[in-house]
Amino acid sequence: MSPSKVSTLDFEKFYNTVNAQLRGSKNIHHGVNPATGQELWDVPIASDQDLNDAVDAAQKAFPAWRDTPFQKRKETLLKFCDLFNEHTEEFTTLLCKESGKPRKFAATEIGGVVGFIQYHTTLEIPEEKFEDDEKTVYTEYTPLGVCGGIIPWNFPLILSVGKIAPALLTGNAIIIKPSPFTPYTGLKIVELMQQIFPPGLVQAVGGNNEIGAAMTTHPGIAKISFTGSIATGKKVMEASASTLKRVTLELGGNDASIILPDVDIKKVAPEVVMGAFQNSGQVCVATKRIYIHESIYKDFLAEMVNFTKTIKVGSPEDGDNLLGPIQNSMQYEKVKGFFADSKAKGYKFAVGEPEISANNKGFFIQPTIIDNPPNDSRIIAEEPFGPIVPTQPWSDLEEVIARANDTLTGLGACVWGGDVEKATKVARRLEAGSVFVNSWEKPTPQAIFGGHKESGIGGEWGKTGLLAFMNAHVIHVYKN
Fold this sequence. Notes:
Layout: E1 4-5, E2 16-18, E3 21-23, E4 28-32, E5 39-44, H1 48-66, H2 70-85, H3 88-99, H4 103-120, E6 128-131, E7 135-143, E8 146-150, H5 158-169, E9 173-177, H6 184-193, E10 202-204, H7 209-217, E11 223-227, H8 230-240, E12 246-250, E13 255-259, H9 265-277, E14 287-293, H10 297-309, H11 329-344, E15 348-351, E16 368-371, H12 378-381, E17 388-394, H13 397-405, E18 409-410, E19 412-416, H14 420-427, E20 434-437, E21 449-450, E22 452-453, E23 456-457, E24 459-460, H15 462-465, E25 470-478
């Protein structure tokens, strides 16, 4: 298909965007609506030529954008916010179809796009100055050039913007690759951006894993920002080493929540459930392990069960549901494996059924709690990325902190307690990039987000996160 100019948005036709041109392809794929199992619209699979052309266009667009005054870059981002606000309903509907999210949660993600960009426009790029009798040393930061963003399927739009906004603010060009499971909103927002930003500055190449792999080895891309699984993150880092690309990896987690004995059980238990089951558990920082003090274990678990039984699971079209389906068949089968393993080992299902009922219309799973499985159980040791979570009692604080930290991951964690000061002391001892006291995991653009251990390398968002898209540039000026 020959390139065409960007004009008005058609939310039922999707293209790659290269140098402000909409490109189709002979090779296509499509997403699946996880609430119905029905195929969605065709999406072109980008070729190596598409990627090469995108990199060339980005390299040409970069110098002028780098030299654009910082305030002007902010104004351009805010201008895009105004444009995006004209299309929030269409983006919300599109996100519901590709992700299966209940509409109110899809709307929250859509609303976060403008909030994320607007917050970043309040930031300044840090700089330092040191002076003595001999010299003045200026530490400044300069953009990297062309950045690549590889996007996951669980929050396809906000995680696209989470890479695009800081990259553009700091003076870079960026090419994103949406997930083949949820390609639609990412492709469409980049198409919309062509109405505001110069050609070649923001581009999108969708398709399969091969395009992502080609981005990691492309000599014209200076940085890869990847959000996804640990296994794939390791491959990204290995491939990027061939050109010494900068990498930011935000990977999986196995977040622990520690419940101290002085909590308000009726208030806190439903919140802990939300932390585990938000977005049907398909959140890298969802609560994956829940440790409840033995003195309140029975009562707290009972309240969790009571709340879980009230949770409505269904299609975005079915009304006011709290949870939607698992997003894709691959993940659906993986989550079912945790149910099968827990049943085979004879673990106690506090709520939920060991057998997932077949549903020809979508990938639905009822939220499920496993009561006190052993430490070496699969449900404790691995990340399900679905609506199933284990609980365990604890008695000794030192021991439960050690248990919470006994994992190769370290993305997020929570501590719940009536004594906030004590809970905060516990939080400081948890080996995770983001720890939440008296809240389930709610990452915010106001703070850097990244993981410890195998949950990632580096971090993005917030003032500190801007530096992930920049090189330090130190000027030493000696006095005559």
